């Protein structure tokens, strides 16, 4: 999202799950076969839907699963996870938008972030991932003790939600190797996870040709010139003078 809420949630989840998630994430990504990855993804969705049905804690939360076919004829993909799905990697996108083509998904119509809602959603995701990692159900992974462990820090969320919109984050502006904003994200994430590295995205052969211009600052020159009316008047004056000279 252009308001940066997704990155804010990601950074907070990395901080919350840092003590326990590292030993689980690395083997699951490197050793699990493809069917096992699909089972893990399905378990995450199952836990997320089950947690949303806890009406005592989240009375206004509703989780729906939307299946969408990938149209390879389009030059651009609607959701971020579709690129991974094409490569046969299990992925999903969490969004409060039911359709990727809604007008409220564009940056010009973005609303201000409600920190209370963002904090609640972050906690739901943290508890869902904890239930999936520990293969627990019900009160074994969702209770007062677990809720306290997965409670987000609103100050951290507020920091990132204020930092993200303040930075120019257009794709051409983030392609530089030493982009200060990318370096800040890299260093912050490197403190929370075991292995962090930057990967330069390469154009897929199915993607159309594109060119990035990564210049942050540019000098614009403006010149004050005489209007076209002056040239017209000058032309009439010269023509009249030459006509008089010819007649005489």
Description:
This protein is about 45% helix and about 0% strand. It is mainly alpha-helical. It folds into two domains: about 5-160, no CATH class; about 165-248, no CATH class. Helix 1 (about 5-15) packs antiparallel against helix 7 and helix 3 (about 35-50) crosses helix 5. The N and C termini lie far apart (about 75 Å).
Q: Can you lay out the helices and strands and say which pair or pack?
A:
Blueprint: H1 5-16, H2 18-30, H3 34-52, H4 82-86, H5 115-134, H6 144-149, H7 154-163, H8 180-190, H9 228-247
Helix pairs in contact: 1-5, 1-7, 3-5
GO cellular component, one term: endoplasmic reticulum membrane
Family: Belongs to the nicastrin family.
Keywords: Endoplasmic reticulum, Glycoprotein, Membrane, Signal, Transmembrane, Transmembrane helix
């Amino acid at each position: 999202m252009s308001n940066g809420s997704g990155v804010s949630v990601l950074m907070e989840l990395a901080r919350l799950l840092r003590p326990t998630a590292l030993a689980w994430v690395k083997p699951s990504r490197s050793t699990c076969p493809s069917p096992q990855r699909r089972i893990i993804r399905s378990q995450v969705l199952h836990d997320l839907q089950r947690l949303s049905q806890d009406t005592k804690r989240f009375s206004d939360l509703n989780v729906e699963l939307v299946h969408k076919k990938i149209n390879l004829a389009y030059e651009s993909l609607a959701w971020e996870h579709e690129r991974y799905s094409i490569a046969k990697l299990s992925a999903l996108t969490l969004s409060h938008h039911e359709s990727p083509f809604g007008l409220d998904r564009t940056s010009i119509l973005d609303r201000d972030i409600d920190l209370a809602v963002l904090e609640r959603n972050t906690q739901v995701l943290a508890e869902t991932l904890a239930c999936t990692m520990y293969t627990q159900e019900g009160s074994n992974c969702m209770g007062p003790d677990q809720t306290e462990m997965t409670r987000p820090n609103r100050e951290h969320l507020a920091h990132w939600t204020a930092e993200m919109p303040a930075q120019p984050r257009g794709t051409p502006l983030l392609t530089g190797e030493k982009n200060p904003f990318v370096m800040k994200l890299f260093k912050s994430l490197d403190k929370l996870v075991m292995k962090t590295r930057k990967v330069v995205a390469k154009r897929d052969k199915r993607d159309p040709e594109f060119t990035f211009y990564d210049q942050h600052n540019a000098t614009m020159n403006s010149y004050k010139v005489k209007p076209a009316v002056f040239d017209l008047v000058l032309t009439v004056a010269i023509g009249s003078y030459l006509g008089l000279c010819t007649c005489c």
